[in-house]
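Researcher: I've been going back and forth with a colleague about how DUF6327 family protein might be arranged in three dimensions. Neither of us has a model we trust, so I'd like an independent prediction. The organism is Flavobacterium frigoritolerans, in case that matters for your notes. Sequence below.
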Amino acid sequence: METKKYSSYAEIERELEILKIEKQINYQKLVLSVQKTKESLEPHNIINGFLGSYKTILSNSYIKIIQAAIPYLIGWFMNKKRGH
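Model: Here is an independent structure prediction for DUF6327 family protein. You can compare it with whatever you and your colleague have in mind.
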């Protein structure tokens, strides 16, 4: 990296302000990226993503039926495990 030469303190201050703002922007991008990653790992988003990948194979009506049936299947499975 090339060493910069400044002719005044004002130039140095301006460069520091630019670097400070760039740092804040990069931090906010990182926070947003972490937030999006957390959201993508939520169970309903994983299921929707999985079902969405098969959207071209299945018609929309089949996907709606499957999405409606999943909570019932989970409930049935949980009741079966409890012995009801």
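Researcher: What would you highlight for our discussion?
Model: I'd start with this: The radius of gyration is 26 Å. After that, consider the following. The mean pLDDT is 83.
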